[in-house]
Design brief:
single chain, alpha+beta
Length: about 400
Amino acid sequence: MQEMFADLHVHIGRSEKGKPIKITAAKSLNFANIAKECSDRKGIQIVGIIDCASPYVIEDIEEFLKTGEAYEIEDGGIIYKDKVCIILGSEIETSEINDNGKTGSAHNLCYFPKLADIKAFSKEMSNYIKNMTLSSQRACISAYELIDIVEKYHGILIPAHVFTPHKSFYGNCTSRLERIFKEKFPKIFAVELGLSSDTYLADQISELEARTFVTNSDAHSLPKIAREYNKVLLQDISFKELQKALKNEDGRKVLTNYGLDPKLGKYHRTYCEECDKPIEGNPPITMCPYCHGNNITMGVLDRIITIRDKEKTISPKNRSPYVYQVPLTFVPGLGAKTIDKLLNSFETEMNILHKLSEDDIEAVVGAKVAKTIVAARSGGVTIHSGGGGVYGKLTVG
């Protein structure tokens, strides 16, 4: 068995020919560049690219395989330079009826073992989505219906960033996933927490106790890959092995979730759209105490406290630990040139965050920067909560 790092939610901004895929993502985010970034700079061994159902991306994948740098394997996944396993995925927005009888919407991460599987999935989903070339498009079906289509093509479905106020199940569709998936709920064996929540918040909802938690970056640019990630225990890198880890089967499992402190997430606290600032009062906040208006975006913390059915966090015995991780791009005063200098010396971000001593870092970038990095990765920072689409901030000292 081997310990490996996995980030299962990375977007593609443009195709190799410049066609738009994820409008809000960087143009440099294409299939080949993601593979290289994970291999050469991040140290990520498994990456889920979740815009692979776009016909433009499918064309890029086929061309990428012709280069000889990557190849498909029988157990699922595309292997790049024998270092990285690329899991082919698609983020689909489903149409739901929320607890109030109104229309809601939620994002679903759908992963498939083979290129042929996701090609067939893309073709069928074109019956429900107006423009399959773009990322995260709304389908005129529910997640209850979607999961059958995913399984038809040997895939798995994981609810995405389940607590965020926009485009998530708990955020704007339901207080319980079982109401959405009904008798199919046992097929949901993992959920993605999202940047504004963590294990300790999520385990206040009892129906999640039997589900594996995953923490992913939802990267919209190359530097944001591995902003959050997972350490998994696998026999080797493949779709089949990853699926076993998510199901906690045959000794495979998610060992650790590495994520931002939820306060750093951009939807952690309720945000007043009129006052244009997050509200730091005791949760749950349902009305702005400053302007007394209700034009607010409810924060993840506030939402969880509203819908929880446990007063205290009681995690199951096999729950993976959640480790607060500050990626290099979040460290105060750490610019792109300094990050490049560190990566040139120590190869990958995983090495810097997990293996190096303060002395090692100091030898390359000096004492002040080294102390800041060590303080950030060891919790010696003050965090100012984010909300309403604005990330929280770190101060050191």
